[in-house]
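Example (one chain per record):
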Amino acid sequence: MKPFVPQLVFIEPKALEYEQGRILKDKFEKMGLEIRETTSHNQVRNLPGENELQKYRNAKSTLVIGIRKTLKFDTSKPSAEYAIPLATGCMGHCHYCYLQTTLGSKPYIRTYVNLDEIFQQAQKYIDERQPEITRFEASCTSDIVGIDHLTHSLKKTIEFIGKTELGRLRFTTKYHHVDHLLDAAHNGNTRFRFSVNSQWVIKNFEMATSSLRERLEAAKKVVEAGYPLGFVVAPLYLHDNWQEGYKEMFDEINNTIPSKHFRDITFELIQHRFTKPAKKVIQKRYPKSKLEMDEEKRKYKWGRYGIGKYVYQKDEAQELRETIENYIHQYFPEARIEYFT
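Predicted structure:
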């Protein structure tokens, strides 16, 4: 899969007050991309497309260069203490993704250029929590690796966290474009995680992302570059022959990652879930999707802010959890399972 290149770029004027903004403008001009000015990302208008579905797909290939105005970081449990805001939006077309509703009518990709201000705020959070470790999640609202070959914001963040004693960085990705990150001075403070799934789920629901083989080859590169490695198995999805599908996935991980690195691997397990608003958006944007969202077959679980979600029934979730955890114990007995949710 080729690295992402936006079809259209918007720049907020204030972004050009920052070196990162000027660097990106110059880069995209030299690439010959169409560049427009916008007073704010909220004013991004007139995206190409004859209907809403076409405009949505074109938005997914639109990049907005701006500044992060709100420097209060969101919490990011159970993955980390805080979400560090580097970008918003994703070029992938994963049918189940929670960003379908989180980003609502603004599915375009945004990158923030006021990195020094973001780093200063991160340092404040680290100082407030010392002597405890403070973990930052960089992929709550985007797949940051998917655009970092263009922006290098993630690389700068890795090196910033690498200089701290008590800061840690985490992110997850479905993309394999990691070569520029291999020489970053991470000092072991960044855990590089890859989102993985059965071939059936990737084929049917994870369009415009790297293949499992590409992701695992990239995982091999980063672990050999000294990064702590993790895998996010999500969403765990009950499809025909799912047991065999996930077994084949773990077998491929086992055959790709050198065994000397098995001890420090982490796994995070997340069962498929959806909300009523998400279901409406998904069915509208991917009308031919095979994604099962039958509320009658699911268990309703209350979530944060009073928004509930539909997860698997208790016995199905238990079978799913036991099966996946048994595979992990079989293939990676020294690995750590961080949570199942």
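Caption: The first strand starts at residue 8 and ends at 11.
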